[in-house]
Design a protein that fits this description.
This protein is an all-beta fold and 189 residues long. 0% of the residues lie in helices and 61% in strands. The protein has a 7-stranded antiparallel beta sheet with strand order 1-6-15-8-9-10-11, with no helix packed on it. A 7-stranded antiparallel beta sheet has the order 2-3-16-7-12-13-14, with no helix packed on it. A two-stranded antiparallel ribbon has the order 4-5.
């Protein structure tokens, strides 16, 4: 599953164990552009593959979140100016669901992770230039985290990302990563 993927900013430590990817981040890594903080960071760790057309990517996350902004999740990337990252991020003393949509400037939304358990399963679906991010509850229901716009070429890259903007050594485990055909565009089914 991870064999056909390639790194952007390979982390100092990573391995595949029992079909899961385990990543330990480098020092002060992140993906961010301009907004509020007035800096550009494009040195987070992203393992991705090319995908053409509409698709759904899914993964289950388990991390050792300890320090402000420790994060891991899915990433859809066109280039350094256009991308989405969504997953779990440590802020305000606990893990939150997080999504950043970047079109030259990054925006950030977070919500306390309701009813998701210790591991968090996310999926990201491309429907043309619309991108839907969802999370699965403990009960198995999918809930919408974000519906966003991103100008996408026919082929873009999708995969998993991990960052630790305040330190080195955040460790995360990605399991069940898969890219399939897109789920139904019906938001309220």
């Amino acid at each position: 599953m991870f064999d056909a993927m390639r790194w952007l900013n390979e982390p100092p430590h990573w391995s595949v164990e029992d079909e899961a990817l385990v990543v330990t981040t480098g020092n002060r890594t992140d993906f961010w552009r301009e907004t509020f903080y007035d800096f550009v960071r494009d040195d987070g760790h992203f393992l991705g593959r090319d995908v053409t057309g509409d698709f759904t990517a899914q993964v289950t996350l388990a991390g050792q979140y300890e320090t402000l902004y420790d994060q891991m999740g899915l990433m859809l990337r066109v280039d350094r100016n256009n991308w989405i990252k969504a997953g779990v991020e440590f802020t305000d003393g606990r893990p939150h669901l997080s999504c950043v949509v970047t079109r030259d400037f990054s925006d950030w939304s977070v919500v306390a992770a309701p009813d998701v358990g210790d591991d968090v399963t996310l999926r990201l679906t491309r429907h043309g230039s619309a991108v839907r991010v969802q999370f699965r509850t403990v009960g198995g229901d999918w809930r919408l985290l974000r519906l966003g716009y991103l100008p996408l070429p026919a082929t873009c890259r999708v995969g998993v990302m991990a960052c630790s903007p305040q330190r080195a050594g955040f460790t995360g485990r990605f399991s069940g990563f898969a890219v399939t055909g897109p789920i139904s565009p019906d938001l309220h089914a």
